[in-house]
Amino acid sequence: MDNALKLFVAWGTVCLLLYGAYFAPALSVATRHSLTLWEWEYICLFYFRLVNTCYLLLEGAMAIVVFLLWRNLRKEEAFDAHS
Question: What's 36's DSSP letter?
């Protein structure tokens, strides 16, 4: 497995674990307490911001993978040109 792919898989796994860790408390609170509409709105917005941040980090990781692939392709083209 390529190092870039390992990095991407590891980063994606961490993001998914964080996603689950963020939503588990919200589901726990929702099942233990009867929440008003205002409380639900606050919790949903708060968790949306956290998950959106996680998504942006994942996008950043994908950008790093694209950059590494592009760099490797340039190296291969340069190697093929010299051969």
Answer: -
How confident is the model over 56-80, as pLDDT tens digits? 888 888 888 888 888 888 888 777 7
The answer to whether 33 and 27 have CB atoms below 8 angstroms apart is no
Q: How far apart, in whole angstroms, are the C-alpha atoms of residue 62 and residue 66?
A: 6
pTM, full prediction: 0.43
Token pair for 46: 């708060």
In terms of Cα–Cα distance, which of 62, 53, 64, 63 is closest to 21?
A: 53
R_g of the chain, CA atoms, integer Å: 20
41-71 b/e with 16+ CB inside 10 Å = b? eeeeeebeebeeebeeebeebeeebeebeee
Contact in structure between 47 and 23 (CB atoms under 8 Å): yes
